[in-house]
Amino acid sequence: MASGGSVTLWIERLKAGGEQTQQAAQKVWERYYPALLRLARRNLGNASVRVADEEDVVVNAFERFFRAAGEGRFPRLEDRDDLWQILLMLTERAASNQRRDGARQKRGGGAVRGKGGIRLRILHLLQSALRGRIGADLKG
After folding, report:
1. Dist CA 39 CA 73 (whole Å)
2. What distance in Å separates the CA atoms of residue 136 and residue 140, rounded to the nearest whole number?
3. H-helix or E-strand containing 72?
4. What is the pLDDT of residues 31-40, one digit of tens each?
5. Contacts of 33 (CB under 8 A, 6+ apart)
6. How far apart are CA 139 and CA 41, in angstroms?
7. Do 37 and 29 form a contact (C-beta atoms < 8 A)?
8. pLDDT tens-digit profile of 46-83?
9. CA 84 centroid distance within chain
10. Phi, psi of 108 (to 5 degrees)
11. Residue 24 class from Cβ within 10 Å (0-12 exposed, 13-18 middle, 19+ buried)?
12. Are 29 and 126 in contact, with CB atoms under 8 Å apart?
């Protein structure tokens, strides 16, 4: 059996659901958040930080990942390499969408917005993970 620090074990727990899901989600978040934040920052390029915030991108990627993992939509997710490829793809897509959406006139076309909303989404995501309800909470 893998140790408690094993990414493979975290993946197994995320896929299985149940009471250990929250701990696994927290571990994945802590392990990959800094690298995904740097990736999002690079992918956003010159986009206004207040419009296309890298934290928004990473939280969006994690939301999509946790929802899909809870629904069993990653049949080839087996190890750290698979996890990284999925998180990388989701983060790059989220950054691309953020750049595109930030440039749209109907979305404010570059208007500045506050960062408070994303902080609340992060808090809610982590609280949901701690209650083992990731899949259910992210569907709504």
Report:
1. 24
2. 7
3. none
4. 999 999 999 9
5. 58, 62
6. 27
7. no
8. 765 555 589 999 999 999 999 999 888 999 999 999 99
9. 12
10. 105, -15
11. buried
12. yes
- Report how far Cα 121 is from the mean position of its chain's Cα atoms: 11
Residue range 8-42, pLDDT digits in tens = 999 999 988 888 898 999 999 999 999 999 999 99
Cα–Cα distance list, 120 to 63, 64, 116, 126 (Å): 13, 17, 6, 10
Query: pTM (2 decimals)?
Result: 0.71
Give me the phi and psi of 58, to 5 degrees please: -70, -40
**By the 8 A CB rule, do 123 and 62 touch?**
no
CB burial class (10 A; 0-12, 13-18, 19+) of residue 103?
middle
CA distances from 61 to 29, 67, 78, 125 (A): 11, 10, 19, 12
